[in-house]
Amino acid sequence: MNLNQLKQGYCILGTPFQTTTYSDFIAQCQRLRSAAKSYAVEFCNTQIVTMRRHDPRFREMTDCFDYFIPDGMPLIWCLNMQGAKMSDRVYGPTFMRRCIAACPAPLTHYLLGGSTECGGKLRQAIQDWNPLVKIVGSFHGKCEPNGQLEQAFEESVIQEINDLSPDFIWIGFGTPKQQAWIHKHKALIRRGILLSAGFAFDVNAGTKKDAPLWMQRFGLTWLYRMASEPRRLTGRYIRYNSLFLFYLLHDWIAGAKSCTTKNNQ
User: What are the strands, taking DSSP E only, across 107-191?
Assistant: First the structure.
C-alpha cells in the first residue's frame, strides 16, 4: 500500500484504499508477482466497505488483504471528496480483461471458482483476449461460507496451486465466500497474487450481463444487477446501500478519518 496516500486520509468507513489506475495497478501486480510470498487484492465496492464496517467478523477476515482497490463509482466520489483526484474506478471485470490481455507469455494464471460451464466459457474468452496466455490450472466447484472447498478438493487444490506456482490466482466464489477462502488459505500459498474477482467470472464468461456503460458511469451498476436478479439481490442492495449512507453520514458528523494502515510494498 502506498503509505503516502494513506497518510493523506484516503479511506472510507475505515477501509484504506490504494488510489490507482488500471495500467498502474497492472504494472504493480506484475512487479509483485516476482516476490516469494502471496498478496491478496480486493476489488472493493460499497457492499464490501459496509460489511467491513458493520460486521467485525468480516472485517477481521478481510484484514489479511494487502490492497483494497476502489471498484465502485460511489467510492470514487467519496475518495475525490478527500482529494484523491481519481478519474475512474478500477472495476474488477474490466481489470481482469486488461490485466490478462497485457500479460506477457511467461506469466501464468489459475482460475478458482464459478461453474464448469462458466469456467469453459471464461477460458475461451481469455484466449480471445490474449492467445499467448498461459492458464496452468483451474478448479470450478463448491466453496462453503467458511471458505472451505468440497472435502475431496480442500487440500489437493492448495497443493496444485503451490506445485504450479501461478503468478495470478483469480478467485470467483462471490462475496463473502471468496474472502473467506482467501482468509483461510492465503498463508498456505507460497507465492502469487490472489485476486478477489467475484462477478468478473460471470461477466467475462458471458453467463451474466453487465450494466450498460452509462449506468456504470453514474454508479448505477447495483440497480441494473438488482433488476436482473431481483429475488437474489434486492434485499442485499437495500440493506447495504442504506447502511453505507448511514455510516457515511455518521462519520461525516463525527469527523472520522482513521484508517488501519499496513506496510505494503
Answer: 108-113, 134-139, 168-172
Widest CA span in the chain? 53
Closest CA to 204 of 66, 99, 76, 63: 99
The cell numbers describing 213, all together, are: 456503460
pLDDT in tens, 129-165: 999 999 999 999 999 999 999 888 999 999 999 999 9
Q: Which single residue is written with the C-alpha cell 466453496?
A: 143
Which set of grid coordinates corresponds to residue 138? 483451474
Give dist(CA 50, CA 247) in Å, integer. 8
Q: Which amino acid is at 4?
A: N
The x, y and z cell numbers of residue 121, run together, are 466459457
Query: Angle 230-254/46-54 helices, nearest 10 degrees?
Result: 60
Cα 220 to chain centroid distance, Å, stands at 18
Q: What is the pLDDT of residues 96-114, one digit of tens each?
A: 999 999 998 899 999 999 9
